[in-house]
Amino acid sequence: MKAESRRRIWRWSWTAVASALLFLGLWAFWLEPASLVLSEERVSLALSTHRPLRVAILTDLHVGSPFNGIARLRDVVRRTNAARPDIVCILGDVVMIHGIVGGRQVPPEEIGAELRHLSAPAGVVAVLGNHDGWFDHDRVRAALETSGVRVIEEASSRIETPAGPLWFAGISDLWTGRHDIAAALSSVRDDGASVVLLTHNPDVFPFVPGRVALTLAGHTHGGQVRLPLIGRPVVPSQFGQRFAAGHVVEGGRHLFVATGIGTSILPVRFRVPPTVTLLTLVPE
């Protein structure tokens, strides 16, 4: 092969590699983080309801992170309402606390003013996350409650949903709160209604008793990056990829981890798009 031909092949090869890397960089740092999808999931479990229950899950909003300003939050609210959920569950990390390239801090009162427009027959319930605690737990809680969001931490509430009554219990964040499961369930009456437990961090799941029909969590962002063959290189959990995302069943107990909307540390998402999750709970 002539030297000129070899040089031409090398030039084309390096051009192809550089183009692929540029495309992947744009995808991971711009196209996917700036997107928003509605993911519809179904989970069948022992539930006391008389029909399927539609639960919208919003978690890790991180309002103020790149591509996640107030305009994006309005779109999240619009997409959530359009899905016509029976109830909306917010699973924490409403605010963004750590400095991140291209982001800015948004006051929780502005966030609450937008979340006020969420609409569901059984209302909106929430727990807070580690970023909310690092920022100012009480201020974030007050902003949500002023906007009509019911914050349930170390407590429970019997809620009449269109599918029938359910107990919704909540625990505070594993890193910044009491995360007292016993306290959260102490007021649950044995009236035949199932219990749904809200938590920010899924690492509490091994300690959740069988009395709970389903645990809902966020926090992991699904690792933000999911590589072919390799999986999720970084998951903020002591259990690695065990509770990274989706429906998990262990010992007959059910957990669902939503991958959320915002970003943390690095403004990157690859094959884990910002997601509003509509979870349909189907009684067995």
Explain how this protein is built:
This protein has 284 residues and is an alpha/beta fold. It has two domains: 1-31; 37-283, Metallo-dependent phosphatases (Purple Acid Phosphatase, chain A, domain 2, 4-Layer Sandwich). It is 25% helix and 23% strand. The chain contains five helices and twelve strands. It has a six-stranded mixed beta sheet. Strands 6-7-8-9-11-10 form a six-stranded mixed beta sheet. The chain is globular, with a radius of gyration of 21 Å. The mean pLDDT is 92.
Succession of helices and strands: HEEHEHEHEEEHEEEEE
By DSSP, the count of extended strands is 12
CATH architecture of the largest domain, by name, is: 4-Layer Sandwich
Oligomer: single chain
For the sheet with most strands, the description reads: 6 strands, mixed
CATH superfamily label of the largest domain = Metallo-dependent phosphatases
Instruction: Show unreliable segments.
Output: none
CATH class of the largest domain: Alpha Beta
Structure summarized in a few sentences:
By secondary structure, the protein is of the alpha/beta class. It contains five helices and twelve strands.
Topology:
Elements: H1 3-31, E1 37-45, E2 53-58, H2 70-82, E3 87-90, H3 108-115, E4 124-126, H4 130-146, E5 150-151, E6 155-161, E7 164-170, H5 181-185, E8 195-198, E9 214-217, E10 246-250, E11 253-257, E12 275-283
Parallel strand pairs: 1-12, 2-3, 3-4, 4-5, 7-8, 8-9, 9-11
Antiparallel strand pairs: 2-12, 6-7, 10-11
Helix pairs in contact: 2-3, 3-4
